[in-house]
Amino acid sequence: MDSLLFLCARRLVAHHPLPALPDDLYPVLFKAAFLDGRPLVLQDLVAAWPFAELNLQRLVGRRELLGDHDCNLCVEAVIQGMGAQLQQELEEPGLDSSLRVLDMTGLPAGITISFSTGALAKACLELSKHQQEFQRRGSKRHKGCSGGATAAAAPQPPGVDVHTDLFVIRDSYEILRDALQDGGAGPLRLKCREFEAERISASEIVTLLESLDPSCLRRVDLRFNSLGLSGLLEILPRLSRFPELRSLKLQYSYLELQQQTPESARRIHGIARQLGMLPRLRELNLRSSQLSGKLHQILCDLQAPLESLELASCSLAPADLAFLSQSFHAPALKKLDLSGHDFSQGLLEPLQLLLEETSASLLQLDLLECHMNDSHLEVLLPTLLRCSRLRFLGLYGNSLSTAALKDLLQKTLELPDLRLVVYPYPMDCYKRVPPGPWWKVLVEDKELFAAVKAEFSQMLANSKRTDLNWTCTPLDCRALDYFSL
After folding, report:
1. Quick check: 341 pLDDT over 90?
2. What is the pLDDT of residues 195-206, one digit of tens each?
3. DSSP letters along 3-43, please?
4. How many Cβ atoms from other residues are within 10 Å of residue 145's Cβ?
């Protein structure tokens, strides 16, 4: 329930412009304006912000910030308000504005981060240009008054450090490159916390990485970039300049390790050596790399155990899981993703051994689309129950029956920290239709499934585990991020 203060703030921000207000009302007015979609009010609030720091997530709330509302206009308004304050500082050197740190980290992934990246880059370039023009005008005025004498440089305003996550794609590469290269000495300084790049070349990624402030970066996420071994070898040496880097995601980077040649062996050794030069690395995602039998070659030089390892669709062999079980990573793993592997073909026993070694630390386990049926789950269940700290279990896309899922639900009730289970559509909740196209052979029996869902909900209620969410819609669920574990 909203507080009386917040309800009053919502009434107030419905009118623009705002009257003069005491400083201590700015935070609640900011939250109300952001959640109610009042960009003009937001812009005015930020332009006159009376505190040294503005932290978007702290003011609005993480859950609210990640809600379903479109916040692009509000994000743009925050950036424009900051720009207005900085522009005023440039034009009035004696003006002492308060805002020095704007924290925009934690925005919803995807469109919003992509939008904010472009908006910040544009603002950075515009302010740098404005600063240069103001300096030229000031220099001309001084020369006119002093008969051409060289003037001492006017003191520059302190500017604002913007802590943000950056997401770059092909269309936004050039403007972000220019902003990072030109904005270091400008009034708006970008401090990247998490860097994501999609569908750009290795050389372009290197250019951006070399332009980032090294002090804040904690994650690099590269997706669909067709890097291959050679591209990755070009990028990895640039990562050692980031002392806070703890997460490296290389999803769909087309790392092919199965066909080994002397040249590829040399590159794999180089990749392992470069990974070993990242002393704080704790999360590694190699989704859709072809690693069969080669996992130990990639991880052999790491200085500290990984806490999050995502190996979905990596064509792992039993030897890879055996290596993990015996490595110093296993007892430290909090998050493990082995989705997309066929555990009906020789991987089930190695998986059991691995889970036994991770049982004391594991918080999240993803086994989506792993060709598991009731008999495989029955074999695996005793080992799962030893994972006493498990919070998230993903089993979507496996061929399990209602009876097997009910047994799983009943037995996992004893896991006190379990909060989310993503289960597959039960096989007995499909009905066959007359012969036709192969994708229409089985269709969902929605009435039967509704009864099954109601039974699951009743079982949870009877066990007083309403804190545990069972769902078969994985897109509606946010898996645990490593930094929230």
Report:
1. yes
2. 999 999 999 999
3. -HHHHHHHHHHTSSSPPP--GGGHHHHHHHHHHTT-HHHHH
4. 10
Q: Return the higher-pLDDT residue of 123 and 133.
A: 123
Q: How many CB atoms lie within 10 A of CB 367?
A: 25
Rg (CA), the chain: 27
Q: pLDDT at residue 439 above 50?
A: no
Query: Residue 83, SS3?
Result: helix
The amino acid occupying position 196 is: E
pTM of the shown model: 0.92
| Alpha-helical runs (H) found in 173-294 | 173-182, 202-211, 228-235, 262-275
Whether residue 86 contacts residue 188, with contact meaning beta carbons closer than 8 Å, is answered with yes
d(CA 147, CA 163): 44
Determine contact, residues 299/327, Cβ cutoff 8 Å. yes
Return the pLDDT at 152.
47
State the burial class of residue 366 (Cβ atoms within 10 Å of its Cβ: 0-12, 13-18, 19+): buried
What pLDDT is stored for residue 438 in this prediction?
47
DSSP string spanning 95-163? ------EEE-TTPPTTHHHHHHHHHHHHHHHHHHHHHHHHHHHHHHHHHHHHTTPPPPPPPPP--EEEE
- Give Cβ neighbours of residue 38 (< 8 Å, ≥ 6 apart): 13, 14, 16, 32, 74
Residue with the two structure tokens 């859709």: 288
Q: 286, 250 in Cβ contact below 8 A? A: yes
CA angle 192, 194, 199 (to 5 degrees): 105
What does each C-alpha distance from 192 to 40, 279, 424, 446 come to in angstroms?
Answer: 27, 20, 38, 46
Task: Provide the token pair at 424.
Answer: 């597959």
CB atoms within 10 A of CB 1: 5
DSSP letter for 257, please.
Answer: -
**Which pLDDT belongs to residue 149?**
42
User: Six-digit token pair at 99?
Assistant: 């805002």
Query: Alpha-carbon distance 422 to 393, whole Å?
Result: 6
- Cα–Cα distance measured from residue 429 to residue 79, given in angstroms and rounded to the nearest whole number: 50
User: Phi then psi for 217, rounded to 5 degrees?
Assistant: -70, 125
Phi-psi sector, 256: left (phi>0), alpha (psi -120 to 50), beta: beta
Q: How far apart are CA 391 and CA 480, in angstroms?
A: 9
Question: Mean pLDDT across the stretch 274-296?
Answer: 96
Q: What is the pLDDT of residues 371-430, one digit of tens each?
A: 999 999 999 999 999 999 999 999 999 999 999 999 999 999 999 999 999 999 999 998
* Structure token pair of residue 360: 């004391």
State how far the Cα of 220 lies from the Cα of 422, in Å rounded to an integer.
27
Kindly state the helix (H) or strand (E) to which residue 352 belongs, with its residue range. helix 348-358
